[in-house]
Amino acid sequence: MWDYSDKVMDYFRNPRNMGELKDANGIGKVGSMACGDVMYLYLKIDPKTEVIEKATFKTFGCASAIASASILTEMVIGKKIDEALKITNKDIVEALGGLPQAKFHCSVMGSEALEAAVNDYRGIKPEEKEELEGKLVCKCFAVTDKLIEKVVRENHLTTVEEVTAFTKAGGACGSCKEEIKEIIDRVNSHPCCQI
Ligand code: FES
Predict the structure, then answer these.
(1) 85, exposed or middle or buried, with CB in 10 Å at 0-12, 13-18, 19+?
(2) CA-based nearest residue to 53, from 31, 32, 23
(3) Where are the domains of the chain?
(4) What's the predicted TM-score (pTM) here?
(5) What residues are annotated to the active site?
(6) Is CATH 3.20.20.140 the right assignment for the domain spanning 1-132?
(7) How confident is the model at residue 17 (pLDDT cuts 50, 70, 90)?
(8) Is CB count within 10 Å lower at the N or C end of the chain?
(9) With a 6 A CB cut-off, is 138 part of the ligand 1 pocket?
(10) Which residues contact 54 (CB under 8 A, 6 or more apart)?
(11) pLDDT one-digit tens code per residue, 104-121
């Protein structure tokens, strides 16, 4: 049994804003059934003000995936999209009163789903999105170099094991571990890349 905070358990047992949003104009999907977690984030954005008026989610995953998506919907409602995009996985973890390290990838899925929903709203096509997302590093879990760089930078990660906890990358066949290590070293050796 994972050691979840009371807040995670509350959001898991009583998820807020769960379900599909019929009038959504931005829909983000991350993960896949093959990888064991899927998250959909639905946004209704006012095109004049770019304020997120409504947000809901659907997820197939564990308690922390449900809690991360649910609290994220509450965090973005009422914010302008540029402001909402500043929410990092760290903010989601903090808002939940913490997550077990092995479940950090759920919070990363939340911030990715948000980005994907905004891309969808902005009409960024999947091919362009791929360019923005970068090169595929972990084929087992479809994790790109851009995502690894982002979590390493934002969370000050130094080991492959930590990257696995945050993204799942490296957690299956392990053939991508060397490349993950290179990315960690690259980000950490450039002080200008640190936050
Ligand atoms: S390619 Fe990354 S774990 Fe298999």
Answers:
(1) middle
(2) 23
(3) 1-132, 134-195
(4) 0.80
(5) 35, 106
(6) no
(7) very high
(8) N
(9) yes
(10) 17, 21, 23, 24, 42, 43, 44, 77
(11) 999 999 999 999 999 999
**Looking at this protein, which amino acid is placed at residue 182?**
E
Q: What is the predicted pLDDT for the residue at 129? A: 59
Q: Ligand 1 within 6 A of 38 CB?
A: no
Ligand 1 centroid from CA 93, angstroms: 25
What are the tens digits of pLDDT across the range 65-89?
999 999 999 999 999 999 999 999 9
Instruction: State the alpha helices, DSSP H only, in 77-194.
Output: 81-84, 89-95, 104-121, 126-133, 145-155, 160-167, 177-188
Interval between CA 143 and ligand 1 midpoint (Å): 9
Q: How far is the CA of 138 from the centre of ligand 1 (A)?
A: 5
